[in-house]
Specification:
It is a single chain. The protein is 38% helix and 14% strand. The protein has a five-stranded parallel sheet, sandwiched between helices. The longest helix has 19 residues. The radius of gyration is 18 Å and the shape is elongated.
C-alpha cells in the first residue's frame, strides 16, 4: 500500500484496553508492518486540550499566511503561547514524518472518542501541513457496537466515518490514500437487543481482519 520502509504511525484511542476491537485490529496491522512502527496511545497518554493561548497563536499565524514551522515560536507573544506550540509541534512532526498513519477509532456516542478529538484539535494548527500529506497513506480502523450500514435502523446515525473522511481530506489526505476498515456489532455479547446477531458480528470482525491483512501485505 505504500513504502514499507517509511515509519508507520499507529494511533489508538479506545479506552477499552485489551478488550478493544480497534486495538486488536491495529495491533494485527502493526505486527505485519515490516518497517518501523511508532505508537501513540491517546487513552493512556491523553493529549492536553487546546487553550486560549493556542487559539491566539493560531490566529496570529493564520493572518500571516504560510509560516514555516521553525518560525512559529518567534511569533508567540508570551510563555503561554510558547508552551502551547511546544505541546503541539511533536504531534505535527510525527504525522509529517510518517509514511503511513493507522488510526484505531471506536464509535462513542455515534462519533469519535474525546481522546481522539483532542489530538485532532491540537494537530490542526493553521498551516501545519499544507501539502505535506498528499502522499501519506491513512488507514482508519473503526469499531461500532451496533450496525450502521445501509438498510439498518441506524443507517443515518454514523457520525464517525463521515466526520473522519471529511476531516482527513480537508487536512490534505488524498481520497485514494484513505481507507476505512469497519467492524460492526462489537457489543453483541453485552447488549440484549443484539441477541441473535452473533454470527453477523463474527463475520464482520473476520472481514475486518482479512482487510487489514490485505492492506499491509
Amino acid at each position: 500500500m505504500t513504502d514499507m520502509l517509511a515509519p508507520l504511525l499507529r494511533i489508538d484511542s479506545s479506552a477499552d484496553g485489551e478488550e478493544s476491537v480497534t486495538r486488536r485490529l491495529t495491533s494485527l496491522f502493526a505486527k505485519h508492518w515490516p518497517g518501523e512502527v511508532r505508537h501513540r496511545d491517546l487513552a493512556a497518554d491523553p493529549v492536553p486540550p487546546i487553550s486560549e493561548a493556542y487559539a491566539r497563536l493560531g490566529r496570529r499565524v493564520e493572518r500571516r499566511g504560510s509560516v514555516p514551522l521553525p518560525e512559529i515560536t518567534a511569533l508567540a507573544a508570551d510563555d503561554a503561547e510558547r508552551r502551547e506550540w511546544e505541546l503541539t509541534l511533536p504531534f505535527v512532526t510525527e504525522v509529517r514524518e510518517a509514511g503511513a498513519v493507522l488510526l484505531g477509532v471506536p464509535m462513542y456516542n455515534f462519533s469519535v472518542p474525546a481522546a481522539l478529538k483532542a489530538w485532532i484539535d491540537r494537530l490542526t494548527f493553521p498551516g501545519a501541513f499544507a501539502d505535506a500529506l498528499r502522499d501519506t497513506r491513512f488507514v482508519v480502523v473503526c469499531a461500532r457496537g451496533g450496525a450502521y450500514g445501509p438498510g439498518t435502523p441506524r443507517e443515518g446515525c454514523d457520525f464517525q466515518e463521515p466526520y473522519l473522511r471529511t476531516y482527513l481530506t480537508n487536512l490534505g489526505v488524498a481520497q485514494e490514500h484513505l481507507t476505512f476498515v469497519v467492524a460492526e456489532l462489537t457489543r453483541v455479547a453485552d447488549i440484549p437487543a443484539l441477541a441473535g446477531l452473533e454470527h453477523l458480528a463474527e463475520e464482520s470482525f473476520a472481514a475486518a481482519e482479512r482487510r487489514v491483512l490485505e492492506l499491509v501485505a
